Amino acid sequence: MTDPLVRDALRAFVAEREWAQFHTPENLAKSISIEAAELLECFQWNADADTDAVKEELADVLTYCLLLADRLGVDPDQIVLDKLELTRTKYPADRARGRSTKYDAL
Amino acid sequence: MTDPLVRDALRAFVAEREWAQFHTPENLAKSISIEAAELLECFQWNADADTDAVKEELADVLTYCLLLADRLGVDPDQIVLDKLELTRTKYPADRARGRSTKYDAL
Amino acid sequence: MTDPLVRDALRAFVAEREWAQFHTPENLAKSISIEAAELLECFQWNADADTDAVKEELADVLTYCLLLADRLGVDPDQIVLDKLELTRTKYPADRARGRSTKYDAL
Amino acid sequence: MTDPLVRDALRAFVAEREWAQFHTPENLAKSISIEAAELLECFQWNADADTDAVKEELADVLTYCLLLADRLGVDPDQIVLDKLELTRTKYPADRARGRSTKYDAL
């Protein structure tokens, strides 16, 4: 179960600023893509990146993910575990071991 | 604190398939962007989207975020809380209330 | 056929700065995603955006697209026309008219 | 000047399918990000990618870029050249030569 501490801290933060009005699922989805690209930018020209910058950008992506999960009324940990079960069947360990091949080409 | 249950389930899943070799920080950052766009695709032509599809795509983004956090040796909840403190100073409640304006234009 | 003027201007610009070394196809693909998100950011919280900002960000996406096309030795106009023919068969006008449905659900 | 052939081919294609209604600047911006990520996916786990797949995904990004340029009433070649002049001042050749450093750290 996701720690309610972070969820509650985010709710309070958003409420204080009356920002919930902007947090439609679509706007949150756009925000996740925007922040994901800022994370990617740490690696734009090379594989090594400044670790502090990576952590900060990752935090931004996670923040919007948690806001969207809350908006949808789902537990982020639970949907990750649910999806893992689906992925388990798409990528049986004996076939997928050591291979980055997409499931439809396994 | 993030629930170790999900982190451990992901570690086991990756280990069974010998996939850690592909999970460089850069590849994980690319994956987060790729999945973020699949989430965005639920809203490509309209603001309303199939909720089950949104949950599944959000789960994919979160999964890669958790993998990257683990790879960097950070607690996802902690970096979100740390970043929230930074954002608190950039967006003082009295100035930011009800406004979606970026901090450098507040 | 794409106007060689722009292609040549970009080649000269890159050569002057000895930047071709950074322009691997992968780095250019990352750059296209990064710039695409900066374009998307113009619309982060609303459907209306500052037109000048949109034009500038669109120019950045196009620039990296043209650099990648050149790197791959393809004519950008030609690959667009080639893809259009493929899309024509996936979305026959009589079935696709007025519908944003993806081809596999038509 | 951009070849009107491609612009006109796209206009005809969109008109036949009555798709202009979906092509708001925001939806086109979302589409560009979505296609950019499909291009990035060619490189998800490695630096080498299937060239045909890369060309096809690049064509999709370019297509939406051209649709957006047309929607905004701008010539794609012209905005690229205009932006190049701006970038020229941000990255003077003598300072930027051989360096991938962002302009604010030059």
From TrEMBL, chains A, B, C, D:
Q: Residue span of the signal peptide, if any?
A: none
Sample GO molecular function, one term? nucleoside triphosphate diphosphatase activity
Q: What is this protein called?
A: NTP pyrophosphatase (Non-canonical NTP hydrolase)
Q: Which domain of life is it from?
A: Bacteria
Entry keyword set: Hydrolase
Stored InterPro entries? dCTP_Pyrophosphatase (IPR052555), DCTPP (IPR025984)
Pfam families xrefs? MazG-like
Query: GO:BP terms for this protein?
Result: nucleoside triphosphate catabolic process
Q: Which CDD domains does its entry note?
A: NTP-PPase_RS21-C6_like
Q: Which organism is it from?
A: Conyzicola lurida
